[in-house]
């Protein structure tokens, strides 16, 4: 598992054990988005903004306006989950990528991150 996949797994595990409001509050008060962005780790920063935005939409929570400055950015290349990348390479077929894109959560896709599941984490 690469660093980003481990990060996603850890973040989703934290979310699983908190309410959406508690999770958002943790991200905001610990300035996690700003910290990753300042370190140049844009994947992690944008993933957190996307997740917060998704939770706000899903649970009808007020959007975090302090993240507006990050919403104008996106990753240069589309970032697929490593499992989708690997299977696509093994099968020499892009069907899985197309399916993943079609089922991606819009808030993540805004940043060129393909994410379809955040709730089903073990």
Secondary-structure map with pairings?
Blueprint: H1 3-16, H2 20-29, H3 32-38, H4 42-58, H5 82-91, H6 95-102, H7 106-109
Helix pairs in contact: 1-4, 2-4, 3-4, 5-6
First-to-last CA distance: 15 Å
The tally of helices reads 7
Instruction: Give the helix level as a range of percent.
Output: 55-70%
The averaged pLDDT comes out at: 93
Structural class computed from helices and strand pairing: mainly alpha
The Rg value, from CA coordinates, equals: 14 Å
Query: Tell me, what's the shape?
Result: globular
Using DSSP, what is the number of strands?
0
Q: What is the string of SSEs from the N terminus onward? A: HHHHHHH
Sheet with most strands: none
The portion of residues forming beta strands comes to under 5%
Residue windows where pLDDT falls under 50 for at least 5 positions:
none
Brief sketch in words of this structure:
With 122 residues, this protein is mainly alpha-helical. It has seven helices and no strands. Helix content is 57%, strand content 0%.
